[in-house]
Design goal:
The protein contains one helix and 14 strands; from the N terminus they run E-E-E-E-E-E-E-E-E-H-E-E-E-E-E. The chain is mostly beta strands. The protein has a domain of 116 residues: Deoxyuridine triphosphatase (dUTPase) (Deoxyuridine 5'-Triphosphate Nucleotidohydrolase, Chain A, Distorted Sandwich). A five-stranded antiparallel beta sheet has the order 4-5-14-9-11, with no helix packed on it. Strands 7-12-10 form a three-stranded antiparallel beta sheet. A two-stranded antiparallel sheet has the order 1-2. A hairpin with a 5-residue loop joins strand 1 and strand 2. The longest helix is centred in the middle third of the chain and has 7 residues. The protein is globular, with a radius of gyration of 20 Å. It starts with a strand and ends in a 40-residue tail after the last strand.
C-alpha cells in the first residue's frame, strides 16, 4: 500500500549509487511542476553528435509502490534549444523495477551537444497506473469518428489537403 507524507504527497524510497552521492535527488523546479528533473551521473563529459544516442545513468534507484509508474520524459528546453530528447519517450519505470534509472538520449539537432556530470537531462513524472481487464465483444459502441486514424480529426477543418488514406 502506498504511503503518504503529512502533506499528502506519495512517499517513495530512493537510493543513490555510491558514485552519485554528490548529485541532487530528483526535484521539482517549481511548486506546481508535474515532473522532477533527473541529473546525469556521468564520470566524464560526453559529446552527442547529431543523430547519436547515449544511455545516460542517473545514479538513482527507486521503489515505487504497486499501482504507480514513473514516466521519463524530455526536458522541453533541451529539446527546443539543442534537439536533445528521450529516445523512447515517455520511458516507463515499473513499480517492480529496482535497477538504476537510465535515460536513452538522442541528439536530433544539427550541432554537437556536450553533457556534463549533474546536467538536468530529463524529467520524471510519477503517476497512478490503471489496470485493465479485457471484455471481448462482437461489436464496439459507435462514435462520430469511428475508424478515422492519424490526422483524421483535423482534415477539412483548416483547409488541410493531406491525403490520410488508410487512417494515416
Amino acid at each position: 500500500m502506498a504511503q503518504a507524507s503529512s502533506n499528502g504527497d506519495l512517499v517513495v524510497s530512493i537510493r543513490r549509487e555510491p558514485d552519485a552521492l554528490d548529485l541532487p535527488l530528483p526535484a521539482y523546479a517549481t511548486a506546481e511542476a508535474a515532473g522532477m528533473d533527473l541529473c546525469a551521473a556521468l564520470t566524464h563529459d560526453a559529446v552527442l553528435k547529431p543523430g547519436a544516442r547515449l544511455l545516460v545513468d542517473t545514479g538513482i534507484r527507486i521503489a515505487l509502490p504497486f499501482g504507480y509508474e514513473a514516466q521519463v520524459r524530455p526536458r522541453s528546453g533541451l529539446a527546443v534549444r539543442a534537439g536533445l530528447t528521450v529516445l523512447n519517450s515517455p520511458g516507463t519505470v515499473d513499480s517492480d523495477y529496482r535497477g538504476v534509472i537510465k535515460v536513452p538520449l538522442i541528439n536530433l539537432g544539427q550541432e554537437d551537444v556536450v553533457l556534463k556530470r549533474g546536467d538536468r537531462i530529463a524529467q520524471m513524472v510519477v503517476a497512478p497506473v490503471t489496470r485493465v481487464q479485457w471484455a471481448v465483444a462482437e461489436e464496439l459502441t459507435e462514435t462520430e469518428r469511428q475508424e478515422g486514424g492519424f490526422g483524421h480529426t483535423g482534415l477539412g477543418r483548416t483547409g488541410d489537403s493531406i491525403d490520410a488514406g488508410d487512417g494515416f
